Structures are given as structure tokens and as C-alpha cells.
Amino acid sequence: MKRKLRIYMPFINAGLQEATTYRANWFFFIIGNIMGCFVSYFIWNAVFISSGEGTLRGFTMPQMVVYIFLIFLTSTLIGSGGTYDIGEEIRDGSISMRMIKPISYNATFLFQELGNKIMTVFVIVIPLVIGVEVCRGVLMGGVQFEIIPFLIYLVSCVFAYLINFFFNICFGFIAFVIKYIWGANMMKNAIIGFLSGTVVPFSFLPKSLETVFLLLPFSSLNYTPVMIYMGVYRGSNMLFYLGLQLFWVLAFWGLSKLLWKIATKHLCVQGG
Prior knowledge:
Blueprint: H1 2-21, H2 23-51, E1 55-56, E2 59-60, H3 61-78, H4 82-92, H5 95-99, H6 105-140, H7 147-172, H8 175-178, H9 182-195, H10 207-215, H11 223-229, H12 235-263
Antiparallel strand pairs: 1-2
């Protein structure tokens, strides 16, 4: 384990340096997502006002506000850019430098993103958690924070990140065949945004669709951690969805190994 850590430590450092070097890009990305949160807030506020109801599909407006900002917090924690990175390396030919090294191709991306996540947690996530809890306290009329659900939420976020990471790696291998993946990646992000509960909570969908969506891997990305944080998933229900997350982690990890062996046979870079 120590030997592996020594091997991949430079990639963690590279992730940290990337986050600190391109601060403006990082800053505007976060600002863009925050603006998206406020757009969602005003849309749902209009929905609740026009409905004339205090509760819609199990959500009050204060709960929906918390849901919106928890979705943003979770998306920030579990975000992964593996698809884009693989596509760019194939496009400019730099993938060859990774492939000639006697190390795991997937692990280099994982540890590089880990360095980026360290910066994200300290600069963004901790202030966001404090902000969310202040918001919950004001809206709900008292302190809502519970340490055990929060710790389980963090475990769920780790599973969610690994699912997202390995899925993006698997999707990124398409670039070995189609060469340029920007458009396909945009389409994938839009579809996953809906299937992960980012756009609309699953309880607003027809019951049959809700049941199907909850079993798909994408509900494990955002919806499951948020439901744990909000206390909706408890006891055996929570254990079931954590187990489902673990299942999808292992499934996509195995699929990434298989697709790597297949994809490398179709590699044809356009750059150097």
C-alpha cells in the first residue's frame, strides 16, 4: 500500500496544483453552478405558488430549498471529469505518455482527481455544509444537523463519486473509436442530470418510473446521498440503497477493466 501511495502521490500533487493554478476557471465553474441553484429555486417557488398547496409529492417549499442546495453540494463532491480528460488526451495524442508508464491508467485519473477533491472540500464543501445547515435551521425553525446521518451521507458520497468516476471512464473510452467526444459528453451530462434526480425529485415522477429510476445507477449519484442527508432514507431502507451503490461501484469498476482491454485495440490519436 505504501509503495502504491508513493507511485501515485505525484498525481495527487498534480491535481492540487491544477486546482490552484487555474483558480479563475474553477471559480467561474462554481459561480455558474450557484446561479443554476438560484434558477431552480425560483422555478420551484413559482410551482409551489401556482399550485396553492403547502406540500407537493411529500416536499414542502423549505424542504425543496434544502433539496436544491444539497443537490448542488453533492454534485460538487462527486463531480468527475474523466470523460472529457480521456477525450482530450486522445485528441492531442498525450494519452501515449500515460500508456507507456507501468501504472494503472484508471488510477492515474483517480488520484489526480483526488488532489482536486482535497482543494474542493476545504475551499467549497465545508463552507457549503455550514451554509446548508444555517439554511435548514432558519427554514425548519431549529437545528437540524445530526452527526450520524451526515457521516453516512459522506460514505454514500464516496460510493457516488466512485460510481461517477468509473462510469465516466467507461464512457470516455468511446473516444477511442469516435475520436472527439465533446458533443457526446454534453448529451450524457444532460441525461444523467435528469436520471440522477438533479432536475426533478423522483417522487414527482409516475410511480412506475420512480421505481425503475431508483434501481438505475444514476439515482446513486445524487438522489441517494441527498435522501440520506435529509433523513428520508433510514434503517433497512438506507442500508438497501447503500448496498445498491456498492453494487454499482463494483459493476462499473469491472466494466472499466473490460472496456480498457477492448478500447486500446482501437486507439488512433489525431495529435502527436
